[in-house]
Amino acid sequence: NAGVTQTPKFRILKIGQSMTLQCTQDMNHNYMYWYRQDPGMGLKLIYYSVGAGITDKGEVPNGYNVSRSTTEDFPLRLELAAPSQTSVYFCASSYSNSPGELFFGEGSRLTVL
Amino acid sequence: AQSVTQLGSHVSVSEGALVLLRCNYSSSVPPYLFWYVQYPNQGLQLLLKYTTGATLVKGINGFEAEFKKSETSFHLTKPSAHMSDAAEYFCAVSDSGTSYGKLTFGQGTILTVHP
Fold this sequence. Notes:
The structure holds 2 protein chains of 2 kinds. Chain A contains no helices and 11 strands.
């Protein structure tokens, strides 16, 4: 049972480049989330999904897009990378009957130069 | 809108001493409250949660927290610190309505344990 798996773990981008952070979970969770973590700021919600085909914005969605074509996968797309997107990104999932009990991946550290 | 304030970005204790990490929240509806722990270079793990019922909740690794509605607080305690408790701790809140488990996190408290 792998839980929540994120790839890549590290990536350096140039300003203006695009990339996709991959996230997959094998726990059959309906709910999935993308958070970013910046030092001293806690975690901020970027996007979330309550099931395949359903996504919605969180607190800081600008510059990002998501899709949810299957229950397992929830990729996060960065378009036109900017230095402000330098951060650690965490994907998480939860059961719909245990909201707030999140299972986190190990994170993806992104640097935009 | 909900918010969470963790008092003290860094807390240092000696091994065997009491651990007290403070968390205050604001919420316009009855809250669900959580404490998560993050070890270096890892994702967050759930320590404990409060949803309804008993206001003193026990979690993993000997931690517990008490929901005090009148003080809008959910402080995390452990009677005796262990070296392995060194980590960053996050308090989080969601509302008890249809929030789909979206959490608002505090800024985190780094716990250092000295021998």
